[in-house]
Write a structure and sequence with these properties.
Blueprint: E1 2-5, H1 13-16, E2 17-19, E3 24-27, H2 33-42, E4 48-51, H3 59-62, E5 64-65, E6 69-73, H4 78-87, E7 93-97, H5 104-107, E8 108-110, E9 114-117, H6 123-133, E10 136-139, H7 148-151, E11 152-154, E12 159-161, H8 167-177, E13 181-183, H9 193-196, E14 197-199, E15 204-207, H10 212-221, H11 224-252
Parallel strand pairs: 1-15, 3-4, 6-7, 9-10, 12-13
Antiparallel strand pairs: 2-3, 5-6, 8-9, 11-12, 14-15
Length: about 250
């Protein structure tokens, strides 16, 4: 299911949060509303962690990660690095990256198997991404934009790209990533998908301005409706099981 939320007065959810299948990071804000929206949806499945990177709240644009690892820029302090290592699951590797383009969230788009990176990324950084995240790395542009992390968003289920991406590029990227892709927008027509939303295999969060049509496209391409239906089905099964047990107990009494 896709949830609308805002960080203080900003609809750029992807700027202030980072979400993978193993953890969620949220920036420290003036109020707890933003954090509590994520906690309500995710706390049963994955840890939701308050964080800063280099003393800044825009954690979503400065980090890149998946369920295996988290990459943080060289501006990250030792204290912040220690906090992340203490808070994240033991299986998640946290690695500081010496990269000239330090907004890693803007230059890296990754799921659990493939990563797209900015064409000008250092060779050493490319090796670190492949090693820590356990993915195949491809230097790419999306719709003519080098900031692949800003203009595309994909999970293991599907993905969205910049609305001006040509059909040929979408097909090429889709075969590269091995997931279905669609061109789309978020926050009432914004093409900055990475900044406008965060998404993993079972949930999505986007800005308050996101229209109903955009929500339905997001839920469809990331296959979030199926997840919801499965949860409802398992809930119904549990209810019928409890009802059956209760009925048999009453019969015995």
């Amino acid at each position: 299911m896709a949830t609308r939320c805002a960080f203080e007065n900003s609809n750029e959810v992807g700027v202030f949060a980072a979400l993978t299948n193993a953890y969620c990071l949220t920036g420290i804000g003036g109020s707890e509303n933003f954090y509590s929206v994520f906690e309500a949806e995710l706390a049963e499945h994955i840890p939701v962690i308050h964080a800063t990177i280099g003393g800044n709240r825009f954690v979503g644009r400065t980090v890149a990660g998946n369920r295996r690892g988290l990459l943080v820029p060289n501006t990250t302090t030792d204290l912040e690095l220690q906090h992340l290592r203490n808070s994240l699951p033991d299986a998640v590797v946290v690695q500081r990256v010496e990269e000239r383009l330090s907004a890693l969230g803007n230059i890296v788009a990754a799921n659990d198997y493939v990563a797209l990176v900015h064409p000008d990324t250092d060779r050493e950084t490319e090796d670190v991404i492949a090693d820590v995240l356990g993915v195949e790395v491809f230097r790419q542009t999306v719709g003519g934009q080098a900031l692949v992390g800003s203009y595309s968003k994909f999970t293991n289920q599907g993905g969205m790209v910049h609305p001006r991406t040509s059909l040929e590029d979408i097909e090429e990227l889709s075969s590269l990533l091995q997931v279905p892709l669609v061109a789309g927008t978020v926050n009432r027509g914004s093409d900055v998908l990475g900044g406008g939303m965060v998404v993993n295999d079972f949930s999505a969060f986007c800005g308050l301005d996101t229209t109903g049509t955009e929500i339905s496209v997001i839920e469809s391409i990331f296959k979030l409706q199926k997840q919801q239906q499965q949860q409802q089905h398992s809930g119904q099964q549990q209810q019928s099981l409890v009802a059956g047990m209760r009925a048999s107990l009453i019969d015995q009494l």
